[in-house]
Design goal:
Number of strands: 7
Strand order of the largest sheet: 1-2-3
Structural class: mainly alpha
Subcellular location: Cell membrane
Strand content: 5-15%
Radius of gyration: 34 Å
Shape: elongated
Membrane topology: Lipid-anchor; GPI-anchor
Protein name: Variant surface glycoprotein 3125
Keywords: Cell membrane, Glycoprotein, GPI-anchor, Lipoprotein, Membrane, Signal
Largest sheet: 3 strands, antiparallel
Function: VSG forms a coat on the surface of the parasite. The trypanosome evades the immune response of the host by expressing a series of antigenically distinct VSGs from an estimated 1000 VSG genes.
């Protein structure tokens, strides 16, 4: 409708519902869809099945007939949309790139890193310098803690080279011990040893990662945590802190784990990010299941809308032809065409608008000279005005070949 736009060219849609819309009892429920449809019309595509030109040729009972049929189709489209699950903000905005980057950030600390390239600063989020290992290898949401999966592996696997410690080696693999090791008195974890640990993990590059795999992985991790009666420990723990020595532990500590395991694990930010991704992917999976069941309906409704307009246009054309008797046109046809209430519909109907604004004015038939000039111009150029109209039903493309289905189907109901 013209009331949805700020300008005559219909290029800018009102951000909020106008007084005209608010007078409609159900506007609040439908405004988002009306706005989306108006925005779609402002950017027409070749897929649009209906033509504004066709709608403008309808008057009187033909227009009412088309409106009734289109309204019925729109109501079906609205019911169809209501069947779609309501996605959370995170799931709605999720894309394949975002999902992949979340996994990379959880694994390496940054989305740009890979096993051969990840550095100690990227994995830990900053330079560790000479911070004590038992203070770094803690599952908390703070700087210089276990920020990524690689950080956890460094705490679990890299051998201690602190002189006063009896180093525990071979906890993971010989390579994971590292060549230089970690002497938290004189240095930070060696970058070369950090990349060795990252590269020691099994690669699933190019493979699909369904939500179920992520769920199994995080639940398996929880099952590996032991407790001393108060705190939790991931890895080899004996007593008094995860400092890397054989008498204490090569591990990650979770303070207060036994009292509240779930809240404690949420402090491990990279694990929380993966669990959030699990939830979002499950939402998308459920939505896709519904969309797959109703996938053909939007196209059927679009075809029904196009057929309704075509039928009404045909009726209008036949009635217009029979309205001419003995070379004279019935006055009611002429009057109906120039009874529009807005500048846009008036001028598109071949009439002239006498006024100063979109709705401030009067629509009148053109005089004989104006009609002749207009007809001559179209005949000379061969270009009669033809603009696509707003779509009745719109659906976004659904991905079918990947696990991360990242475009939400939307169906818009118009009046």
């Amino acid at each position: 409708q013209d009331s949805s736009y700020e300008d005559r060219e219909k290029s800018k849609v009102h951000a909020d519902a106008q007084d005209y819309h608010k007078k409609i009892s159900y506007f609040a429920e439908h405004w988002a869809d009306w706005k989306a449809a108006a925005e779609a019309f402002a950017k027409p595509t070749v897929e649009n099945k209906l033509k504004e030109e066709a709608a403008l040729k309808l008057f009187g009972k033909d227009k009412k007939l088309a409106h009734a049929k289109l309204k019925a189709v729109a109501e079906q489209a609205w019911k169809l949309k209501k069947r779609l699950p309501q996605l959370s903000t995170g799931a709605d905005k999720l894309t394949e790139t975002i999902a992949i980057n979340k996994i990379k950030e959880a694994a390496f600390g940054v989305s740009t890193a890979t096993p051969p390239s990840v550095t100690q600063d990227e994995a830990f989020g900053c330079a560790i310098n000479r911070d004590a290992r038992e203070n770094v290898c803690v599952g908390e949401a703070a700087s210089k803690k276990v920020k990524s999966a690689v950080t956890a592996l460094v705490c679990l696997c890299m051998k201690s080279t602190k002189v006063s410690h009896t180093a525990q080696t071979g906890v993971c693999t010989d390579k994971a011990d590292g060549t230089t090791g970690w002497d938290s008195v004189t240095s930070s974890p060696n970058t070369g040893d950090t990349t060795k640990i990252a590269k020691s993990c099994h690669s699933k590059k190019g493979q699909e990662i369904p939500p179920s795999n992520l769920i199994v992985s995080t639940e398996t991790l929880k099952g590996l945590i032991t407790t001393d009666g108060t705190d939790g420990y991931l890895g080899a723990y004996k007593e008094t802190g995860c400092n890397g020595s054989s008498g204490h532990g090569v591990c990650v500590k979770f303070s207060g784990y036994l009292a509240d395991p779930d809240s404690t694990l949420k402090k491990l930010t990279w694990l929380t990010s993966i669990r959030d991704l699990e939830t979002q992917l499950n939402e998308r999976q459920e939505e896709k299941t519904v969309v797959d069941r109703i996938n053909d309906k939007p196209k059927q409704l679009s075809n029904a809308a196009a057929a309704a307009v075509a039928e009404a246009e045909k009726t209008a054309s036949e009635e217009s032809s029979t309205a001419i008797i003995n070379g004279k046109t019935k006055s009611n046809v002429k009057t109906a065409q120039c009874s529009a209430k807005t500048y846009t519909t008036c001028t598109r109907a071949g009439c002239k608008w006498e006024g100063t604004g979109e709705t401030e004015g009067t629509c009148k038939p053109k005089d004989k000279e104006e009609k002749t000039n207009a007809a001559g111009k179209e005949a000379a150029t061969g270009c009669a005005k033809n603009e696509p109209i707003r779509p009745l039903v719109k659906t976004k493309k659904q991905a079918t070949s990947k696990i991360v289905h990242l475009e939400r189907g939307k169906i818009m109901s118009l009046t």
